[in-house]
Design goal:
Elements lengths: L2 H8 L2 E3 L8 H9 L5 E7 H6 L2 H7 L8 E6 L3 H12 L5 E6 L4 H4 L11 H14 L4 E8 L8 H10 L4 E8 L11 H9 L4 E4 L5 H11 L3 E4 L1 H5 L3 H10 L9 H19 L1 H8 L8 H12 L3 H9 L12
Parallel strand pairs: 1-8, 2-3, 3-4, 4-5, 5-6, 6-7, 7-8
The chain binds flavin mononucleotide.
């Protein structure tokens, strides 16, 4: 069986790669809350090859950080091959090639969604990377550059399968759309219909109901969740319960939210040292939900792990009285 299909058959919910979000600490939390498969933040091929400290940290996988794919990006097929060989040494579950990033700093030079401007070159690049490593290679891309009338994705899916891609994630927007406008999951369905490899649908999955609907409407092997998981990583457990026909897990209360924030804090401090770890964890304030308004100022001011934990320990206490005019 296709190795990615096997993972998704267990549970079809995937944590999207997100720069500055889906690091080892967040992957651990997401996996603990039901994400069946994780993908690292994207890592520039040139930085992998140079052995840059940041690239090494992003590509480092703990033994329990599985199944996780390492995602790389770049504009040059030769460099991507070289980077793939190096990244494969970390023994990720597979390698993912980013052909979907729309950010001008990435796509303008031909990396990320830049590949969509030349589908033939993209297919040739994927073929070379597949031949260079002994791991499955997958591709994450968008439906096309724009406009919607000229979408290459269905034909491209067929050609990427032929080039040896082991699976395909489709962010159902054009590169021009960035994150604007509604994602059209119909493209993932149409692409899925023409290939045998697993297709993962991505874009605009905001809650567990959306995840179930995206899978049902597309027949895809998996659904990838990005922004919704930043605010609400419990979405994975909720989607899995819905898919299994089980009762939904209870919504996270304050102490559960504080527990998850504390878990991120501990993992970030362990990986990055106290000062940076405490700072980086503040990116995850949104997952505190209603608690964030109450604790935000004190969490931003807390300089150490102990001080942050002390603030969190007060999370169960009564909300401070509203200021009177
Ligand atoms: C903060 C942020 C960082 C992202 N970084 C990456 C990345 O490193 N690699 C990638 O393939 N996509 C990246 N994406 C795109 C997401 O993986 C995903 O395709 C997109 O957000 C649409 O899914 P969503 O509607 O569930 O968020 C990023 C998105 C966000 C919001």
């Amino acid at each position: 069986m296709n190795p990615i299909a096997a993972i998704l058959a267990e549970a079809p919910v995937v944590l999207a790669p997100m720069e500055d979000v889906t690091d080892a600490a967040f992957r651990r939390v997401a996996r603990g809350l039901g994400a069946a498969l994780c993908v690292t933040e994207f890592i520039r091929a040139e930085q992998v090859i140079a052995g840059a400290a940041l690239a090494r940290r992003k590509a480092a996988l703990a033994t329990d950080d599985r199944p996780t794919a390492i995602q790389i990006y770049g504009a040059d097929a030769g460099l991507l091959m070289e980077a793939a060989v190096i990244a494969a040494r970390a023994r990720p579950s597979f390698l993912d090639l980013n052909c979907g990033c729309w950010l001008p700093r990435v796509a303008r030079g031909g990396a990320g969604a830049g590949w969509l401007r030349d589908p033939a070159a993209m297919v040739a690049m994927v073929r070379r990377v597949v031949a260079a490593v002994d791991l499955p290679v997958t591709v994450k891309t968008r439906i096309g550059v724009g406009p919607e009338s000229a979408m290459p994705i269905v034909d491209l899916a067929r050609r990427l399968e032929d080039a040896g891609a082991a699976a395909l994630t489709i962010h159902c927007r054009t590169a021009h759309a960035g994150h604007d406008g509604a994602a059209d999951w119909g493209w993932a369905r149409r692409a899925r219909e023409v290939v045998a490899i697993p297709v993962v649908v991505n874009g605009d999955v905001r809650d567990a109901d959306d995840a179930v609907r995206a899978l049902a409407e597309t027949g895809c092997a998996g659904v990838m969740i990005g922004r919704a998981a930043i605010q609400h990583p419990w979405i994975f457990a909720e989607a899995r319960a819905r898919l299994a026909g089980a009762p939904p897990p209870p919504p996270p209360d304050d102490s559960e939210r504080a527990r998850v924030y504390a878990a991120l804090l501990d993992a970030n401090v362990a990986a990055r040292g106290e000062r940076w770890g405490v700072q980086v964890t503040r990116r995850h304030l949104p997952l505190l939900g209603p608690l964030a308004a109450r604790l935000r100022a004190r969490l931003l001011a807390a300089p150490t792990r102990a001080a942050t934990r002390e603030v969190l320990a007060g999370a169960d206490g009564p909300a401070p009285a509203a200021a009177t005019a």
